[in-house]
Design goal:
Order of helices and strands: HHEEEHEHEHEHHHHEHEH
Number of domains: 1
Number of helices: 11
Strand order of the largest sheet: 1-2-4-3-5-6-7-8
Largest sheet: 8 strands, mixed
CATH superfamily: Alpha/Beta hydrolase fold, catalytic domain
Strand content: 5-15%
CATH topology: Rossmann fold
Length: 356
């Protein structure tokens, strides 16, 4: 069993963490990987990466504060059901979503995508570009709402936001903060309503990051985190996010060869604290009562990254129009599991459009 610090040990642990954060960090340098991993990851991408569809084009959209966000779009030659806006999860980059984008197009949709600030091809927030950082999740929500307003005038309707994990959390905040959000529905894939703070209990983890942020260390990595490294160096094994060997290592393999796309596996103290504070809103029924869009909310049975119960409770008790979909055999990174595991999601999306 993993040991967690007791409450009596917390003050000493906090002092230790603050001491570890002291001093000026060294200038950022991307991690250099050994030759064996570089060869193996290159072969992995050659064998498994699904290219973005023909006609996919990238562009830049400027947020209210001047931050430039990368987005992309591919449209079908024939009739379309509408447009699905893919919002990747934590650290995600649109470059590796070719498989899911292709599947959505087969289902009859045009597909757009948006890299949230701090990841993918969008502007980064700190001098160390791998560190995710935000002052308030209202910033993410404003970015997404503003972009959806921009996109809605350029594509077929209905417009559905397909948010994965962290992207799903941001989609909910955009709908709650902006009741006039120019979307017709939300598809939330294992949304990170509440993150998994193991090995620390949630209250302990919150205390740790709150104290370090108050001490001026919000830009420092959360306890135990560091610059990006492959989650599972052996590309023949699964990892906590998924079981499909052919796809689950796509992000790490891409990061190995595209260091400009890297995001650390672990966030900063401020990012963790703001994620928790935003989760407070998403579990407040007076807040979620503002969200009147139809929602498909997907949870998985072998979840190791976020907490499942708060997401299921949100669908059951917090949202006026919510269709739950549970995929027992999947892990958190559903978009990188086997294609057949996503079929229940696509069926639910059809019903979501029908109710409009």
């Amino acid at each position: 069993m993993t040991q967690t610090p007791g409450l009596l040990a917390l003050p000493g642990l906090i002092l230790l963490l603050l001491a570890g954060c002291a001093g000026t960090p060294a200038p950022y340098q991307p991690r250099v990987l050994d030759d064996a991993y570089m060869r193996a990851s290159a072969a992995y991408l050659d064998d498994n990466l699904v290219a973005l569809p023909d006609g996919w084009t990238y562009a830049r959209w400027q947020a209210a504060d001047g931050t430039r966000l990368r987005w992309g779009l591919a449209q079908r030659d024939g009739a379309s059901r509408g447009t699905v806006l893919v919002v990747p999860g934590y650290g995600g980059t649109l470059d590796i979503y070719g498989q899911v984008i292709a599947e959505l197009m087969v289902q009859g949709y045009d597909v757009a995508g948006l890299d949230l600030r701090g990841q993918g091809g969008s502007d980064r927030m700190l001098s160390n570009p791998e560190k995710p950082y935000v002052t308030d999740y209202a910033v993410y929500a404003g970015d997404l709402a503003g972009f959806v307003d921009y996109l809605s005038g350029r594509v077929e309707t209905p417009l559905l936001i397909y948010g994965e994990s962290f992207g799903g959390h941001v989609a909910l905040r955009a709908a709650g903060d902006h009741p006039d959000l120019a979307a017709d529905g939300l598809v939330l894939i294992a949304p990170a309503v509440r993150i998994n703070t193991a090995p620390y209990p949630a209250a302990v983890a919150r205390s740790l990051v709150a104290v370090t942020v108050a001490a001026g260390k919000g830009e420092a990595y959360a306890p135990g985190q560091q610059d990006w490294a492959p989650w599972q160096p052996d590309l023949n094994l699964d990892n906590p996010c998924g079981t499909n060997i052919a796809t689950i290592h796509t992000k790490d393999a891409w990061f190995a060869h595209h260091p400009e796309a890297r995001v650390s596996n672990g966030p900063t103290n401020k990012w963790v604290l703001e994620t928790m504070r935003s989760g407070d809103l998403l579990t407040d029924k007076t807040y979620t009562a503002r969200i009147d869009l139809p929602v498909v909310l997907v949870t998985v049975g072998d979840e190791r990254i976020v907490q499942t119960a708060p997401a299921q409770a949100l669908c059951r008790d917090g949202l006026a129009q919510c269709m739950p979909v549970h995929i027992e055999e999947a892990r958190h990174c559903l978009n990188f599991e086997a294609p057949e595991t996503r079929q229940p999601v696509f069926r639910a999306m059809e019903s979501l459009i029908e109710v409009r």
